[in-house]
Amino acid sequence: ACQLVVAIDGPAGSGKSTVGAEVAKRLGALYFDTGVVYRVLALLALERGIAPDDAERLAQLAQNLSIRVGPPSIQDGRLYDVWLDGRDVTWAIRTPEIDRLASLVSAHPPVRRALLRLQRELARNGRVVIAGRDIGTVVMPEAPVKIWLHASLEERARRRQRDLARRGIVRSLEEIVAELADRDRRDATRAIAPMRPAEDAVIIDTDDRTIEEVVETVLAVVRERC
Ligand code: C5P
């Protein structure tokens, strides 16, 4: 029997969350977004005044991270709740500042090592859709289904701008393009677990496809491989 693990990787704004959550729903699987782990670490570091280049203290913090992810407790557009030590941090980890800090803290090898087990444990029960940057290559290289979502920088920036606007955050497209490009470059060129498609990943270009079309394509790959 096939252990249903669907790994979805891709850059920011490629549609991992939207597609991943919908695919999980249709498969009756759990959805887990690993970006949450780096975002929570970034938030905690910010609150405790730990600098984003202090690899040692960040790794220590990462060792003891206690995150809980669960079904949405409020209907405010969230796909799921994120709890940190009993505190609802679902939106606190979705600010432009945390976007940038998460990418900075995630580049340290000891931080990634410390968070690897946590991510694998979250995926252990099987029947899971897990999204990130290095799921197919590092976290779950044995996943039977690996997807890489592609989208142009312009399209990703437009999507991000829309998402932010829904939450009342107004930003220019130029600003968002610059931030995404900066984050992509850092995520793709870091020494450890750089963002890239696995050799056996199915690459889906989402630019001219609807969410439903992308979801259908992923489900077709699941049927074929699992
Ligand atoms: O996907 P999301 O935008 O929430 O990820 C935030 C940051 O966390 C990314 O920019 C990346 O630096 C880091 N990340 C990572 N590996 C993952 C998921 C996220 O390095 N598997």
Automatic annotation (TrEMBL):
Its EC number is 2.7.4.25. One of its GO terms (biological process) is nucleobase-containing small molecule interconversion. One of its GO terms (molecular function) is ATP binding. It is an enzyme of class 2 (transferase). It catalyses: CMP + ATP = CDP + ADP; dCMP + ATP = dCDP + ADP. ATP binds at residues 10-18. Its main location: cytoplasm. It is found in: Cytoplasm. Residues 6-223 form the Cytidylate kinase domain. GO terms for cellular component: cytosol. The keyword Methyltransferase does not apply. Keywords: ATP-binding, Cytoplasm, Kinase, Nucleotide-binding, Transferase. It comes from the Bacteria. Belongs to the cytidylate kinase family. Type 1 subfamily. This is Cytidylate kinase.
